[in-house]
Amino acid sequence: MRALYDSKSKTIDDRGIKALLSNEAKYSTWLMFEAMLAQAQAEHGFIPQSAADEIKEKAVIENIDFEEMNRIYQKNRSWFRALFKSVS
Questions:
Q1: How far separated are the first and last CA of the chain, in Å rounded?
Q2: How many whole angstroms separate alpha carbon 12 and alpha carbon 5?
Q3: What is the dihedral of CA 70, 72, 76, 81, to 10 degrees?
Q4: I need a surface site. Which of 12, 15, 40, 68 has the fewest CB within 10 A?
C-alpha cells in the first residue's frame, strides 16, 4: 500500500504521478500560487495592479536560478524562502 503514496518507492505505479511529485512541479505550483495571491491582493487594493502583473510575469520556473536557490537554502534551511529569493 505504501507504494501508492510514497514518491520514493521503486514500486510506485507511475501513471504520471512521479512528474506531479517532482521538485519542478512543486516549485511551479508555489510560483503559480504566489501569482494568484498577488492578483487577489491587487483586486482588493492591497498592492498595485502593476506589482501583481510583475509578480505574475516573473513567477515562472524558467526565472529560477537553482544554484542561487540552493545557496540560499544552505544558509536559512527554507526551500520556500530560497525559491522566492532566487527568482530573477
A1: 41
A2: 8
A3: -90
A4: 15
Q: Which of 8, 54, 5, 55 is nearest to 30 (CA)?
A: 55
What is the rounded CA–CA span in Å between residue 77 and residue 44? Answer: 33
Q: How far apart, in whole angstroms, are the C-alpha atoms of residue 76 and residue 88?
A: 19
Residue owning grid cell 536560478: 65
Q: For the chain, give the secondary structure using H, E and C.
A: CHHHCCCCCCCCCCCCHHHHCCHHHHHHHHHHHHHHHHHHHHHCCCCCHHHHHHHHHHCCHHHECHHHHHHHHHHHCCHHHHHHHCEC
Q: What does the domain layout of the chain look like in residue ranges?
A: 26-85
pTM summary value: 0.71
